[in-house]
Amino acid sequence: MTDMPDTTLTSDPSHESPIGDHSDDAAGYYTLGSPLADTKAPGGPIDERWDTRKFEARLVNPANRRKLSVIIVGTGLAGASAAATLGEAGYQVKSFCYQDSPRRAHSIAAQGGINAAKNYKEDGDSVHRLFYDTVKGGDYRSRESNVYRLAEVSTNIIDQCVAQGVPFAREYGGLLDNRSFGGVQVSRTFYARGQTGQQLLIGAYQAMERQVAAGTVTQFTRHEMLELIVVDGKARGIVARDMVTGDIETHLADVVVLASGGYGNVFYLSTNAMGCNVTASWRAHRKGAYMANPCYTQIHPTCIPVSGSHQSKLTLMSESLRNDGRIWVPKNKADCTKDPREIPEEDRDYYLERIYPSFGNLVPRDIASRAAKYQCDDGRGVGPEVDGVRRGVYLDFADAIKRLGREAVEEKYGNLFDMYARITGEDPYAVPMRIYPAVHYVMGGVWVDYDLQSTIPGLFVTGEANFSDHGANRLGASALMQGLADGYFVLPHTIRDYLADGPFEKVPEDHPAVVEARDAVTKRIEHFMTVNGTRSVDSYHRELGNIMWEYCGMERTEDGLRKAIDLIRSLRDDFYRNVKVLGTADSLNQSLEKAGRVADFFELGELMCIDALNRRESCGGHFRAESQTEDGEALRHDDHFAYVAAWEFAGDGEPPVLHKEDLTYTAIEMKQRSYK
Amino acid sequence: MRLTLKIWRQADQQSQGAMHTYEVDGISEDMSFLEMLDVLNEELNAKGEEPIAFDSDCREGICGMCGLMVNGEAHGPEVTTTCQLHMRSFTDGETITIEPWRSSAFPVLKDLCVDRSAFDRIIQQGGYISVNTGSAPEAHSIQVPKEAADRAFDVATCIGCGACVAACPNGSASLFMGAKITHLGELPQGQAERDIRVVNMVGQHDAEGFGGCTNIGECTAACPKGIPLDVISQMNKDLRTAMRHGL
Fold this sequence. Notes:
The complex is a heterodimer. By secondary structure, chain A is an alpha+beta fold. Helix content of chain A is about 35%, strand content about 15%. Among the domains of chain A are: about 300-440, Alpha-Beta Complex (Flavocytochrome C3, Chain A, domain 1); about 520-675, Fumarate reductase/succinate dehydrogenase flavoprotein-like, C-terminal domain (Methane Monooxygenase Hydroxylase, Chain G, domain 1, Up-down Bundle). Chain A has 17 helices and 25 strands. In chain A, the strands form 7 sheets. In chain A, strands 2-24-23-13-21 form a 5-stranded mixed sheet. A 5-stranded parallel sheet of chain A has the order 8-4-3-12-22. Chain A has a 5-stranded antiparallel sheet with strand order 14-20-19-15-16. In chain A, about 60% of the residues are buried. Chain B has a 5-stranded mixed sheet. In chain B, strands 6-7 form a two-stranded antiparallel ribbon. Chain B has helices spanning about 35-45, 115-125, 145-155, 165, 175-185, 195-205, 220, 230-245, and strands at about 5-10, 20-25, 70, 75, 95-100, 110, 115. By secondary structure, chain B is of the alpha+beta class. In chain B, helix 5 (about 175-185) runs antiparallel to helix 6 (about 195-205) and helix 6 packs across helix 8. Classes of the chains: A alpha+beta, B alpha+beta. Chain B: Keywords: 2Fe-2S, 3Fe-4S, 4Fe-4S, Iron, Iron-sulfur, Metal-binding, Oxidoreductase, Tricarboxylic acid cycle.
């Protein structure tokens, strides 16, 4: 949507600069494990690797497929598309979601669009360029084989979705329209007005429902996965709670897929849905799946600010607004409570235009977000005071309305202005909008190899739940692309290589590993139901979120992260002793659901801080105050940190084990981003 | 602001429910309706009373998970989802009645949560285009006139919240079905299954216990996405055509 300027690239020798005595900030918080390698990616030229892997992945005879079973947790783009595709292939699929229908998964809220290297605009796009843009956008912290494959299959996604009836925007000739989007110079984004995620998800949902009717997919709605079942080292099922009856159910299968989304709600306030959580991933982590780069968080600059302590979630507005809106704060603190229209031009600080004269209001997401934080920290934020600080900056369309006319602005941004007016009760045509950054997406997730298989054999992880494609920063319109690439075109090929070892021995329900998993779930629930403390789950979640946002948000420091780890640990102890969950375990109980999720967020939050503490460099969405240039820009340290940090769970109270997967680039050269 | 809330409470699907009265104070007009209920729930929890169960997820008006009858209107006094309704639409001292969706095809599970799985089962009966992954032709081999594409999009914005059913005196899901049938029927890709789709979906609709449409129009008035009433005419037309074709 936004025609973001391309990044100027320079080779910067400072990347080889030593970081002195600070190369091991997280010493004492972790132990170092053996290096990790992705053993599944074939070698050879990058454009042949996926073909090679598809050819080498063994086949499963159609007659044998119906004897093989797959559990898929989550029904967003990555989960629904995989369920549909594996169902079509003839496997027996069980699909789980916590919502009341698969169609509600949070992919539905994605606004902007989906990238694909179709080159319909003949503007120089290609698979290689999409690959290049994505690796560069990820600040050279993603795995090149995976990203190349993503770019390759992107074109198939559009074909598939069009055939399903996804109503993409079209030109008068009846062909598909494209627009440009953040961080690139070509128009490769396919869109369905501001509701692309909705339309793609409904397409995948319908394809999945078709398989439900065909009998290959069984769907379990209002079900939450609470434990992974690992038998003889292999993922063989899940323990799930029926959220209506409270029944604890065992579901066994030959392979398990987690498509359970991201964990942005560890910050309490985010643009995620209320129910988004890390539990499926975290339970798998505790059973042996490594978590990779958990500290990589994307914070989106154009969200509607917090209006009070009652706030339950944040709402994103498309960053296209920055094309015509000008961002400013008052120069004088005394003006912060004034009607912005009465603040004269000379008393306004258009800080992005001032600091970044060549890119102005169109600097990338991470830079725009951090700059807003600095203004508000400096006491020049605007809007309501929440916890003593005004966290908002103006996004002003007065100039645009003068230049283009109100009608043109309405045509371009009308739906966003309406949304803003509904939420804030203010008229953005008359008064400047207020915006503030919010947590939006996590690039980190469960570590997977090229096959999307985790460190637990038989456990595959797709979509936002895995870490693989976006490095330290995700480009706009790439999340939808990755979710559908994984589910429609990657997983169905790689999973068959695993399933080709079947038929697998049946796991009896009274197998010790199954009993252990069920007992663990029952014990946890019993604990929450019997603490009978004084504080609500939400109050703990909110406090945890504040800690994460303050110390592990837009800017992270060594001292802050250490402090956060201590705070999280003591809050977590208090939570287990003093949380109050009413109602019963054998009925619909939303407090109980939240208690389990928040318990896992505590552990994840601590690991995120340790990961951020370890990574003493700034890259993409991760900004360490200690690692910046003289001008205050992010400074990578490729000589120390060009690796994926994959964390192994070592037991409760034990420091996690860090496994490093070195990132090597054969098809692209590592460069420094610069926006001045 | 201070409010009196009359809220439907029901332990589970089998139990008898009843209206309960609660008082809340200190509500700001910037709160969303659901945040107001969050505040009430925190207070109930502190008092040792079980919080009220209600559904919501995205809280930005697109997932379709939330949905309450507020003062007898589906999603309340504004044309939007319950999560996008804000307290500035109410006045200090007001009494607000809050109930779950009203429809026998949407049984109450607990308090304000209902079971809308009937919608999934209707979609399973043909609310799709049969195309297996990987078998799609190149996207530009299918041209769709912009007008048809725009119309398909407009009706495809249905979020499946069920407000149309809750608002309809007959408890009909015709607007929900009409939207899907029109979305797929507008597109060249959707023609092959057009007849069988409408026949099977309508059959499932009736089997689920939804009522028939008598053109009252409450559905479209309550629809947060503004799905127009004429999708129902389109559905009926498609049904007649299918019957003429012998289905």
